[in-house]
Design a protein that fits this description.
Elements lengths: L2 E5 L4 E6 L2 E7 L3 H17 L3 E5 L4 H8 L19 E2 L2 E2 L15 H6 L2 H7 L4 E6 L5 E5 L1 H6 L2 H9 L6 H9 L6 H13 L6 E5 L1 H11 L1 H11 L3 E4 L9 E4 L13 H11 L12 E5 L15 E2 L12 H8 L6 E4 L3 E8 L2
Parallel strand pairs: 1-4
Antiparallel strand pairs: 1-2, 2-3, 5-6, 7-8, 7-9, 10-11, 12-13, 12-15, 14-15
Helix pairs in contact: 9-10, 10-11
């Protein structure tokens, strides 16, 4: 999803979501503060960053461009095997194999591979949510939440052992209306309307989550590995390297030099300390989002080390952007056609 906070030389500020004008105001008065607050709140609630954009538009031009630009309703998706409508990624027909697995999984694999093997091959993150009375129990796939989630939420979820916590509940809520989890929330609403208080719990498969993070949010995965092995990541304070990052191992061993980001320091620590028994993750990319153009939860430039799943429409990449990034050779850098050097991706493996 694309959240854009547009400002103009004339002082207009507008929040645009999915190319549709949501709210506008004037930077000279409280209406501008209201627009900024709405953008921040929506970013926090949905887990999407806000792209700060400056455009030389009059008020009339901005209205003309965005007010009637809502996308056309998408055609209802149907199961490729049986033609039944889909409930999120899954088929409504419980007799269909695609009622348990998303459409990208081949029928041959469904019949020949175990559930664990399917999750590994198709990089799926299995999750489960159930009502406290266990009347409704719904399995689902949590990949979309992991794409959009803030680093801190995933770190807290891991610390909570991947379930039965407020962050775990937010995983299930993310899929309300677009997956089998919807029936759980319908049930809870009905029970609570009768003043029968019933809650729910959600758990995420930790093995699936870590395997996906290793491949697609590799820097964050390295953070988790460092925490598991008592490796400290510290931000340098010396004037000549202020803002850079170091790592210190539990035995006092440390990095050879400082790094531009915590992700890079964590990945180096995992490599130097031998904390990753698997082979190298390929492809792998170093992203860059300049704080002057993009909202950052840390208030600093973002330099995540990430994999292919993080380049998607939900995070503001077009089909053309995704194709261009996919075709990068190691060492080559892609610049956003909209933001230039303020939003870049360099392939590092």
């Amino acid at each position: 999803m694309s959240l854009q906070l547009i400002t103009t030389p004339g002082g207009l500020i507008a929040l645009v979501v999915r190319n549709h004008l949501i709210i506008h105001g004037d930077t000279a008065d409280d209406s501008g503060v209201m627009v900024q607050t709405a953008a921040d709140n929506l970013s926090t609630a949905l887990g999407y960053s806000v792209n700060a954009v400056r455009e030389d538009l009059s008020f009339e031009d901005l209205i003309a461009r965005y007010v009637d630009a809502s996308p056309a309703p998408a055609a209802p998706a149907v199961c490729a095997k049986c033609g039944t409508s889909l409930n999120g990624q899954l088929c409504h027909d419980l007799t269909c194999p695609y009622s348990s697995w998303p459409q990208q999984v081949s029928l041959e694999d469904i019949h020949t591979l175990s559930a664990d093997e399917l999750a590994i091959k198709y990089e799926l993150i299995r999750a489960e949510a159930h009502s406290d009375d266990h009347v409704i129990e719904r399995p689902f796939f949590a990949n979309d939440w992991f794409v959009a989630a803030q680093d801190v939420d995933i770190i807290v979820l891991a610390a909570d052992e991947w379930g039965r916590s407020d962050v775990a509940d937010s995983v299930a809520r993310h899929f309300d209306g677009t997956s089998p989890v919807s029936s759980l929330f319908d049930y809870l609403s009905a029970k609570n309307a009768l003043r029968t208080e019933v809650g729910f719990e959600c758990t995420v498969n930790p093995k699936d989550a870590l395997a996906w993070l290793r491949r697609h949010r590799h820097g964050l995965w390295a953070h988790l590995k460092c925490g598991e092995h008592e490796v400290r990541l510290t931000e340098a304070t010396e004037p000549e390297i202020e803002g850079m990052w170091d790592w210190i191992g539990p035995a006092g061993d440390a990095c050879d030099h400082s790094f531009n980001s915590a992700d890079e320091a964590a990945v180096d620590a995992v490599k130097k300390l031998g904390l990753d028994p698997g082979g190298p993750v390929i492809p792998l990319y170093l992203g860059f989002w300049d704080i002057s153009a993009f909202h950052s939860a840390t208030g600093k430039d973002s330099r995540p080390i990430i994999g292919p799943a993080m380049f998607c429409e939900a995070l503001g990449y077009s089909d053309e952007d995704i194709a261009d990034i996919r075709n990068l050779a190691v060492g080559e850098t892609w610049e956003s056609p909209d933001f230039g050097p303020y939003r870049t991706v360099c392939r590092i493996r």
